[in-house]
Amino acid sequence: MANPSDKLPPLHLEGQWLLGEAFSVPEDQDDHEAWIEAYVNLALALATQPPTEAERAEARRECEVTDHHERESGTVWTKFNHSGASGLRRPRELLKQVRCPAVVVHAAKDQVFPMEHGEALRDDIERAMLVVLKDCGHELPHRVRSRVVDAILTNAKKGAASRCC
Predict the structure, then answer these.
(1) SS3 annotation, the chain
(2) pLDDT (tens place) for every residue of the chain, 165 residues total
(3) pTM flag (> 0.70)
């Protein structure tokens, strides 16, 4: 008989899921369902609040699309894009060369990058606007996407009006 704790959801403490307990890479890399489930677990673990059934269903749909695109393109591990980006470092001085209005979106409860990262980006880019998503972690759930889109559109209008770009 399986251990009942094997079926428990990841632990949730003070607004953060313990990622190590929530996510593991499937042993069989060709097992589509296992990858989808792994991606769903990761997406939900990066949330800062227990997901609703609608959020679980949305995460499932998005992870099915991710798995499909990865299989079609021949790439794997889209969810691990941070490790791919970590090899190339650009000096922060280059951010000071940005002349267009910029939007920095940062989550107040991000479990991966502290708020100081968003603030530093804002401070290093002239005329950058920092949008803080107070009810999010290192995820971008549907419930906040309209706020992000609105900030980007507002910023694009500022750029067009100033003709800097």
Answers:
(1) CCCHHHHCCCCEECCEECHHHHCCCCCCCCCHHHHHHHHHHHHHHCCCCCCCHHHHHHHHHHHHHHHHHHHHHCCCCHHHHHHHHCCCCCCHHHHHHCCCCEEEEEECCCCCCCHHHHHHHHHHCCCEEEEEECCCCCCCCHHHHHHHHHHHHHHHHHHHHHCCC
(2) 343 334 434 434 444 445 555 567 788 878 889 888 888 877 777 777 777 888 889 889 988 988 887 777 666 555 455 444 444 456 677 888 888 889 999 999 887 788 888 898 899 898 899 999 998 888 788 788 899 999 999 988 887 777 665
(3) no
